[in-house]
Amino acid sequence: MDTSDASGTAAASTALLTDQYELTMLAAALTDGSADRRCSFEVFARRLPNGRRYGVVAGTGRLLDALADFRFGEAELAVVARFLDDRTLEWLRGYRFGGDIDGYREGDLYFPGSPILSVRGSFAECVVLETLILSILNHDSAIASAAARMVSAAGDRDMIEMGSRRTHELAAPASSRAAYLAGFDATSNLEAVRRFGVPGAGTSAHAFTLLHSGPDGADEAAAFRTQIEALGLGTTLLVDTYDIAKGVATAIEVAGPGLGGVRIDSGDLGVLARQVRDQLDALGATGTRIVVSGDLDEYAIASLRAEPVDVYGVGTSLVTGSGAPTAGMVYKLVEVDGTPVAKRSSHKESRGGAKSAVRLARPTGTIVEEIVYPMAGPAPEPDGFEARDLSVPLVRGGRVLDDRPTLRESRDLVARGLVSLPWEGLKLSAGEPAIPTTFLQ
């Protein structure tokens, strides 16, 4: 299996992207002989973030890549040797996941209790994957779920992800990928462009306009003229460094009516967008697009839907999940040697047994219910509805299957899923999940 990244260099091990207790539990299981018991673990979210009506599964592709690199070399063993015995170290030295994984397609919707991922194998080989699985799925699904709400609020207008400077540098490309999967059109993050093939986009900086200042004051026209000379008429000029009306007038004076776009990054964006549109049209720049940014979230985007905005640039709210920075997914043991097991702790209950799920829809395509049932049992009857199996094979015998979807295909799945929701499922106001989930024993 190729473990090099897009640059052609050897990929780093993902084995230490984990919590210490997983390896101490492995050591204990090796001690009493329970490490080889056949187990099923399940990833699910007990509930959606407050007020949310659906979630979007994201990160599956990144997870499968990370699984291939979950190897304990000498550098990794040197770290865990501080607290593990020799037998456990030798077991880790030869670790290769050899089990099976099924899961929801990346880009599919999920609801409370959906069996998003099923991991089956020995206790030992499955337990050490908990943190890796949850850290990727919780992060990416949180970003994609927030992004999908923003895309719905924006309608058919373009969306640019601009959140790199508001999150961890290593999380930024993953955030860009999740946003693109959910329907954003481009990202400003170049590592996401390189690594995942997300389309890149950029506008301009206040610093460049301010740079063109001297003893005689600011020279906004010189900044605009240089930018156009370097980047062409299709570029976007930032017009709110000083006075927006003067900035727009200067932009068209320098560029002419063929200017690609102007960007507004501050102020009352709705009022300003109307004023700028009127001004641009009066100057003959009817094709010049208006890009707005500045602390946008799905609610702000929805409030601007009636305004003449062409492109939204979203940063902080997107990469922080717009108030829900984690999807709240958990990884629980649900079956041991064919016997269902369940956690009964108050408010943290789990349902025993390995599970599959189907989603029922009307002939129009509108989904009405999700049914979760025992994996070993027959699928439920659709009772006149159209049924779609939700879990698909991802890994067999430790080998990642070759027919996983591309990022573009997963993006299309998100778009189809949003269209399939009942109309109330797209509301931004707080409410119950868009469809009910029924659990069969």
From TrEMBL:
PANTHER family: NICOTINATE PHOSPHORIBOSYLTRANSFERASE, NICOTINATE PHOSPHORIBOSYLTRANSFERASE PNCB1. Transmembrane segments: none annotated. It is an enzyme of class 6 (ligase). This is Nicotinate phosphoribosyltransferase. Its EC number is 6.3.4.21. Residues 16-138 form the Nicotinate phosphoribosyltransferase N-terminal domain. Keywords: Glycosyltransferase, Ligase, Phosphoprotein, Pyridine nucleotide biosynthesis, Transferase. Residues 160-350 form the Nicotinate/nicotinamide phosphoribosyltransferase domain.
